[in-house]
Amino acid sequence: MSPPARSSILRSPAAPLGLLLLLLCLQLPSPGDAARYDPTWESLDSRPLPAWFDEVKFGIFIHWGVFSVPSFGSEWFWWYWQKEKRVPYVNFMKSNYPPGFSYEDFGPLFTAEFFDADQWADILKASGAKYVVLTSKHHEGFTLWGSKYSWNWNAVEVGPKRDIVAELASSIRNRTVLHFGLYHSLFEWFNPLFLDDASSGFLKNQFPSAKSLPELYEIVNKYHPEILWSDGDGHAPDTYWNSTGFLAWLYNDSPVRDMVVTNDRWGADCICKHGGYYTCADRYNPGHLLPHKWENCMTIDKNSWGYRRNAQLSDYLTIEELVKQLVETVSCGGNLLLNIGPTHDGRIPVILEERLKQMGSWLALNGEAIFSTKPWRAQNDSATPGVWYTFKPKEDILYAIFLNWPSSGTLMLGEPKGITGKTEVKLIGYEEPLPWVSMGEKGMMVVAPQLPFTIFPYQWGWTLQLTNVY
């Protein structure tokens, strides 16, 4: 005889109260019912990317570390000087430092006396960005927190004598709505354990077991980053780093398991193939729609991620170039992660602050065409160069962001098709609807308003809002 159905027992007036409560509990979902992931790429790659990341679109990368002290050439200063022995770096050291001066001697000079986490948070907020990623440790191995696994080579014991990660995380969370993320380099150029592992063809795994993995668990448990930006595989496979094992813990059991977003740099051959979202390469901007969520991480300084004292004005991207990068990236389904490099004493250089605040001014007006948008059927216009599209499906609003004001007084759009009597075109920041003319299957021609540029505080790009187009 088959047992009675659970629902019939629940309806029975004779059912004991204890049994009713037990069965009700069995029917309710428990916290452990969430999907769990195995330590395999097939399983991990099936995890849906937390929705917030696609909504935010724009973040700020911060490269800061001991390399900010020499602040010459690149954040790869130590490698270029000691390993590759590049002439400019060797000569720089000969000319400016005494014989026998080591890279470790730069550590106490990383003073951060002007570092004000609240001020940084305010600058980041003014940029209009929605997330920030701080280099908790670069390839030099110096940690910006007092790591138990980086003895005497961390910001609490050497240099600032402060927990930089904790201070910035607190200010970001208390003063802004930005999501807080951390970059972490898997390998370290000159760590003896890593070098010994590498010499064995990575048959040994002393370094990830004793250093890299413990640090990752440490920063996740201590600082709860919502983005974990991995980098620096050292040409070692993901199996050496036990990346899948760590990510399974991160997605299943960590304190940020529901919100955390990861990238694709978890071992040789992982990039643009495995992970939460793809970076594919530094300064990656494909110019077309990709089937997987991606990020364009790039620098305001064209030549370096870290601060350079010898940078020239022409080495910095203009605000027009930065807006172009943002618009192209978002139109093609990506996020822009824009990098700045602070000074060794903790200042965000004023030219970088200016660029960030300029971006914030542009987004204050045009942000509705960036944030929480989706790619449209066409990413850029077929008739007029420099016109890029974003879309809000629920509102059925198409945005056409044009980077050059039409000298002819009209803007030809070859992709959207207007419907007479229904289609409305507006210029964001200008109250009156704009007249337009249907060009049939060739698109539509929008008449630009004859207005002085003083109405807009800048000339870095403008946005048309189109409704009822196809």
Quick recap of the structure?
By secondary structure, the protein is an alpha/beta fold. The chain has 14 helices and 14 strands.
The total tally of domains equals 2
CATH class wording of the largest domain: Alpha Beta
- Largest beta-sheet characterization: 7 strands, parallel
CATH topology category name of the largest domain? TIM Barrel
Question: Ends: how far apart?
Answer: 62 Å
Full CATH superfamily name of the largest domain: Glycosidases
Overall number of strands: 14
The best one-word shape is globular
Function: Alpha-L-fucosidase is responsible for hydrolyzing the alpha-1,6-linked fucose joined to the reducing-end N-acetylglucosamine of the carbohydrate moieties of glycoproteins.
Catalytic activity: a neolactoside IV(2)-alpha-Fuc-nLc4Cer(d18:0) + H2O = a neolactoside nLc4Cer(d18:0) + L-fucose; a neolactoside IV(2)-alpha-Fuc-nLc4Cer(d18:1(4E)) + H2O = a neolactoside nLc4Cer(d18:1(4E)) + L-fucose; an alpha-L-fucoside + H2O = L-fucose + an alcohol
Domain Glycoside hydrolase family 29 N-terminal: 33-368
EC number: 3.2.1.51
